[in-house]
Structure prediction request, 251 residues.
Amino acid sequence: MIIANLASYPPRRSNLPRVVATLAPQVDRINLVLNEYDGPLEELSSYANVKQIMPDEDTKDAGKFYPDTSDADYVFFVDDDLIYPADFIAKSIERFEALGKGHFLGGYHASIYTKPAPSLSPKRLLKWLTYSREKIADHRRPFRFYETLEQPVVVDQVATNAALMRGADVPPYAYMASSQKFVDVRLAKWCFENGIRSVALPKQAHWLGEVRFEETIFHGFTRKNLPHVADEIWSYAFKAEGLGAPVEPRS
Prediction:
């Protein structure tokens, strides 16, 4: 069984029909967690494989982990502000399976955290001088969803806007519930603790697209560099086996 999990709220409603129309034919079920809604969306009622879920509380982005998907073969985590191609699911599973045996979290937007070094370059010297434990989120090598990546690469963290893992590897909602607005960090911590390798998957440029909304978690939360989020990042950053190297398939 192939499942896609998506959490949304009213300001993002305009792009939901597009996302659902693209993904519904590619999966067995879409779990659509509707935060802050009073009831199911009429414009999506014709999709038999779309389960509209009204949680008891506002789960925000942690809602992607609200449904029980432990019996699924693959679970995809998707967002309401991306544009997915018609071959998104099939190509992603193909690339995921090419990683070989083992436990993986694969995705198309990822990060490797970095530590700046002393430099004669004024810009780099400033980064080194202002580096601190709390500001670790400001120092990373990004693998962006809209850029080309030729080979799968081991990373510290994979974003849940275009990612997949096996159902048996998905963390329970109880583990993720308190990570609202930083679910990517908490998921990376779960993966590190449970021997699941985080991998940036290969793709061509602009295979994935984007719809821009005024309000984003990155600008409204991530850039605040909150200490408790930084503490979680430090629990796994720089520690992955083969970090930054291409993934060699295991037979």
User: Anything to note?
Assistant: Residues 2-234 form a domain with the Spore Coat Polysaccharide Biosynthesis Protein SpsA; Chain A fold (CATH 3.90.550.10). The chain has one domain: 2-234.
